[in-house]
Amino acid sequence: xxxxxxxPFERDVVVVLxxxxxxxxxxxxxxxxxxxxxxxxxxxxxxxxxxxGGTLPWWRVxxxxxxxxxxxxxxxxxxxxxxxxxxxxxxxxx
Length: 94
Fold this sequence. Notes:
Elements: H1 8-18, E1 26-27, H2 28-34, H3 41-51, E2 61-62, H4 73-82, E3 87-88, E4 91-92
Parallel strand pairs: 1-2
Antiparallel strand pairs: 3-4
């Protein structure tokens, strides 16, 4: 999101992310599809990276294989565990 305000894509993704509750874990692809933008998983990741943590629950979004955010694994694991999610070896456990 930039100074001009959010794009329609960004608004759609934020709506999906704001519906996530403690303990929910979704993939970037699931967020994109639910927001009406299937195939835009990387764009969801870019949006979360640009948002810099802010108020969006970025820690609830993982890769399609359950992998945590590269470089942010420790913080993401801590936040997920605080919500009761099982994490081991940099991945969410099913």
